[in-house]
Amino acid sequence: MTSQTLAEIDRVVLPAAGLDDLFDSLHAEGYPVLGPTVRDGAIVIGPITSSDDLPRGWGDEQDAGVYRLVRRDDDAYFGFAAPAGTWKRHLFPAHSILWRARVVRGAPVIEENEDHPGRRALVGIRGCDLAAVAVQDRVLLHGAHPDPVYSARRADLLLVGVACGTPASTCFCTSMGTGPSVGGGADIAMTELDAEDPARHRFLLEARTDAGRAVVARVSARTATAADDDAADAVVRRAGSRITRTVDNAGLPEALRAGAEHPRWDDVAERCLSCGSCTMVCPTCFCTDVRDEPNVLAGTDDRVRVWASCFELGHSYLHGGSVRPSPSARYRQWATHKFSTWWDQFGTSGCVGCGRCIAWCPVGIDVTEEIRAVAAGPTQEQGVADGRHDDG
Ligand code: SF4
Ligand code: SF4
């Protein structure tokens, strides 16, 4: 690649058979790689050493309360929608030690968590999940009090996005403006082309930052042509046209605020199990709890932070009682925070349209349907006066 100009390095084409060149290049630049892989009957995010670890030939079927892997009839490496596992787990771990106390020569000593994972590359991140990283950056990195655990994991990260060509029925990234193309924040944007034809199966790579350019410059690839660009545009266009689930964001924050007493909140509470699965799989949710984990044998006491959910009764426990004692109040809190008050707090929606909360809800509750019903106002039969909202 050394004879190529910088502009030529920006957009290159890598044959699928040479995909390991990309991983070799990342490793040569000092990046251990995390990416999608098949484990426990699902596509999750884990360590990737070569293209053999990717979900080659696997797709997924996702619907309300449904997730299953399906065999594709081609060798696509990224032929699935949003993975079951989230990248969040690797930036904002489900369990983090904040500090450890131990007794040294009779005196207590506090050791801060200085864990810095260093350089890492996230390969295969979708547009919706890139947007989720940007949301978490706003909350955890750019706030008045940057979170040290997140900051340490976010630093030195190289983001390699892959355009989504196979959205699931649960996806609504087009409504949220986050996909299916690779939006801002990626160091390299990839599009997988013609997976059904082994002779033409290839990747268009677009280096968008100096760090991305350094990686792409090491790869044995040819300069992209207008035909490659057209093929990549077609992938994104086709994917976008297959997304049917929608959210109408115009006036939605205000409509949800005005619908605080809508009887639909009680209706959804009849179905909701308050299990918190939707919050655990959501790539933007960031609620946590803090507790102590003593280890008598080691003589230590760890102050740890664990993921929590606003669906837990104890999450809103204040002064001897929970301020959101009913499932109805808790569902309303979650949905209105995501789609309404998040805007006031962070200047963005709290939802990126990945659809995970729909697929992984054990009873198939679809948040897009719930907020649409509330935003539409009560039906004549419901009538606000008859359908008083039970907050306790
Ligand atoms: S609320 Fe649901 S669709 Fe939106 S980002 Fe979270 S998991 Fe994805
Ligand atoms: S909406 Fe679904 S996933 Fe979320 S708490 Fe209720 S039952 Fe669980």
Mind explaining what this structure looks like?
The chain has 392 residues and is an alpha+beta fold. It folds into 2 domains: 6-94 and 115-242, no CATH class; 252-288 and 308-375. Helix content is 31%, strand content 24%. The longest helix has 20 residues, at 327-346. The model is unreliable at 384-392 (pLDDT under 50). The chain binds iron/sulfur cluster (2 copies).
Based on Cα principal axes, name the global outline. Answer: globular
Counting DSSP E segments of at least 2 residues, the number of strands comes to: 16
- Given as residue ranges, the uncertain stretches (5+ residues, pLDDT < 50) are 384-392
The oligomerization state is: single chain
Q: How many domains, as an integer?
A: 2
- End-to-end separation in angstroms reads 66 Å
Which percent band covers the strand fraction? 15-25%
Helix percent band: 25-40%
Helices, by number, come to: 14
Supply Rg.
23 Å
Task: Give the biggest beta sheet.
Answer: 8 strands, mixed
Rounded mean pLDDT is 93
The assigned structural class equals: alpha+beta
* Series of secondary-structure elements, N-terminal to C-terminal: HEHEEEEHEEEHHEHEEHEHHHHEEEEHHH
Which strand order spans the largest sheet, edge to edge or round the barrel?
3-2-8-9-10-11-1-12
**Are any ligands bound, and if so which?**
iron/sulfur cluster
